[in-house]
Amino acid sequence: MKKINFIEAMMKHNQIVLVIACVMMLLGIFGLENMPRREFPEFTIRQGVIVGVFPGSTSLQVEEQLTTVVEDYIFGYEEVNKLKTYSHSKEGQMIIYVELNDNVRNADKFWSKLRHGLGELQMQLPSGVLALVGSNDFGDTSALLITMSSEKHS
Q1: Averaged in consecutive runs of 10 residues, what is the pLDDT profile of the chain (154 residues)?
Q2: Which fold has domain 47-135?
Q3: Closest Cα to residue 135, out of 107, 106, 93, 105?
Q4: Is-contact 70 94, C-beta < 8 A?
Q5: Nearest to 20 by CA among 36, 9, 35, 32
Q6: How many CA atoms within 13 Å lie on the side-chain side of 132?
Q7: CA distance 139 to 93
Q8: Mind giving me the DSSP string for the chain?
Q9: What's the farthest any 2 CA atoms get from each other in the chain?
Q10: What's the CA gap between 69 and 50, in Å, rounded?
Q11: Fewer CB within 10 A of the terminal residue: the chain, N end or C end?
C-alpha cells in the first residue's frame, strides 16, 4: 500500500480545496461584517496615580507620615495589584503609581470609590498635608494630523 502525500491528495481532489477556500472566504466576510467599528474604540485603562502634597517636610517625613499610610490604605482594596503598584517620596510630595488587577471590570467605579476613601483618609493625616488626589484620567484618546506642503517640493 502506497502512502498518499497530503499535497498529492489535494491536487487529486481539488473540489475539497475549493470548498475549504469558499468556506474560509465566507467566514472572513461574515467576520468583517460583524466586527465592531468605532472611531475611538473602548478600552480599559488599569493604571492611575495618587499624589500627596506635604510642603515643608523631608522625604523621610513624607515616607513615614504620608506614603506608608496611603499605601497601607490602598493595599486594603483587593482590586489593587500589589506587585505592580509602587511609590516615590520626595521632599514635600509623594506619588504612588497604582495598577489594578486584570479581573477588574469597572475601573471607573473603583476609582470613584478610592477617591472618596482618599478624601476620608486625608482627615486622618497630619494637618500639613495640603492635597491627596487620585487620578486615572489620562487615557483619553486623541488624534492630531499634521501636514506640510510646499510649492517647491511635492
Answers
A1: 80 90 96 83 84 93 94 94 94 95 90 93 91 81 70 72
A2: Alpha-Beta Plaits (3.30.70)
A3: 107
A4: yes
A5: 9
A6: 25
A7: 23
A8: -PPPPHHHHHHHTHHHHHHHHHHHHHHHHHHHHHS---SS------EEEEEEE-TT--HHHHIIIIIHHHHHHHTTSTTB-TTT-EEEEETTEEEEEEEB-TT-S-HHHHHHHHHHHHHHHHTTS-TT--EEEEE---------------SS--
A9: 91
A10: 13
A11: N
Whole-model pTM: value is 0.66
Q: Which three cell numbers stand for residue 89?
A: 517620596
pLDDT at position 133 is 92
C-alpha cell at 147: 501636514
CA gap 54, 64 in Å, rounded: 12
Q: How far apart are CA 142 and CA 47, in angstroms?
A: 18
Give dist(CA 22, CA 14) in Å, integer: 12
Which tens digits make up the pLDDT trace of 78-91? 999 999 999 999 99
Q: Which residues pair with 4 in a beta bridge?
A: none
**Structural domain spans, the chain:** 1-35, 47-135
How far is the C-alpha of 82 from the C-alpha of 73, rounded, in Å? 12
C-alpha cell at 118: 482618599
C-alpha cell at 125: 493625616
